Amino acid sequence: MEDLIKVLKGNKHLRDENEVTKFESILAELPEQSEDQVAYVTQLFDVFVDDCDHSEVMWGLLHFVESFDDEIYISSLLLSINGLSSKAKDWLEIILSRVLNNDNSKSQLIVALKNCSEVENTTVIEMLESFKADEEPLLRDQAAAVLLESQ
Fold first, then answer.
1. What three-state secondary structure class fits 135?
2. Burial class of residue 53, CB neighbours in 10 A (0-12, 13-18, 19+)
3. In this structure, are residues 123 and 81 in contact, taking their beta carbons and an 8 Å threshold?
4. What span, in angstroms and rounded, lies between the C-alpha atoms of 82 and 122?
């Protein structure tokens, strides 16, 4: 499994058809279970990068990490939050907006924010605060609700 993730990371910029083919092939081979699910999904979050030529291919990775149990998914997301905010901020915004639009994921985020480190908490809170200024009323309201309930 480590080798598969290494190949994903090596091709994550999706610069040409060869990288796209390798990425999609490895994504299809990834196991759905691992001995340490949180560490596994955390490694997968590390593959996200905004600087890629075929971002539509990254959606496959997003759907894969979203398929994990919400507790694992959210725990892994919080452990990955600093890396995502520095190299995949656009993807982080997409991921967090999708979390906010899923009742189970949103509930798990609220619980996790109460128990995570200050660094992880601060990064998520800053992103949620920026969502409160969003023109999309649903996203704005969901972000405000999570901020209120997680305090």
1. coil
2. exposed
3. yes
4. 10
